[in-house]
Design goal:
alpha+beta; 6 helices; eight-stranded mixed sheet; Nucleoside Triphosphate Pyrophosphohydrolase; three-stranded antiparallel sheet; about 35% strand
């Protein structure tokens, strides 16, 4: 198991993600991991029907420590009801790019204005079993933002220390059935919240990006 990257500062995060950029094509996903987990016919079906989506990974400084804001989705939603997620959603025709999607959705869902977000990096688009190609946009959010939750999409909002999410010792590993195939599932448990699925996978990708950058910068 990969070790914890330890405490990390905003300056370090900015430096380590500085070489990343928004994907030219938000549908250009790597299906390799899904190929290893699911029947080929399921993967091919997902590939053919992918829709671009963007999520914001909102990192906020609170009393000298960094936290990540997460939402608990409304139980009435069609996709991932009741699950923990980042603010975000599907790309619309009004969005200039996938960054605009993530910022628009964060504003609509939890009240974070685009001018309150300093985008510092991107992760590669990743497919979900519900048919989205999700591009995570990493941004520092001003801690003075005014929370305004859309109850039609979000049941609750909570914050988790970044150090906790970057520590693999906080992960639980299990399996679940997906269309007759058992697939591995990684879960974080924090203060009564279950963080799993695409959200947990994105957090692990972020840890890998930051850990790889740290290793490359070590002398």
């Amino acid at each position: 198991m990969q070790g914890s990257i330890g405490a990390i500062s905003k300056t370090e995060i900015r430096s380590r993600l500085s070489a990343t950029c928004a994907p030219a094509d938000p549908l250009s996903v790597d299906m390799g991991e899904l190929h290893a987990l699911m029947p080929i016919e399921v993967v091919n079906r997902l590939r053919q029907n992918l829709r671009p989506a963007g999520v914001l990974i909102p990192i906020i400084e609170r009393d000298g420590s960094l936290v990540v804001l997460l939402t608990e989705r409304s139980a009435a939603l069609r996709h991932h009801p009741g699950q923990v997620s980042f603010p975000g959603g599907g790309m619309e025709t009004c969005d200039a790019d996938i960054s605009a999607t993530a910022l628009r959705e964060a504003h609509e869902e939890v009240g974070i204005r685009p001018d309150e977000v300093d985008i510092v990096g991107y992760l590669q688009p990743t497919p979900t079993v519900t048919g989205f190609a999700v591009t995570p946009v990493v941004g520092f959010v001003e801690n003075s933002f005014v929370l305004c939750v859309d109850p039609q999409e979000v049941d609750s909002v909570f914050e988790v220390p970044l150090d906790f999410l970057m520590d693999p010792n906080e992960e639980d590993h299990s399996q679940r059935d997906f269309q007759g195939t058992m697939v591995p599932v990684v879960t974080f448990h924090f203060d009564g919240h279950r963080i799993w699925g695409a959200t947990a996978n994105i957090l692990i990708r972020l840890r890998q990006m930051l850990g790889k950058a740290r290793k490359n910068n070590e002398i």
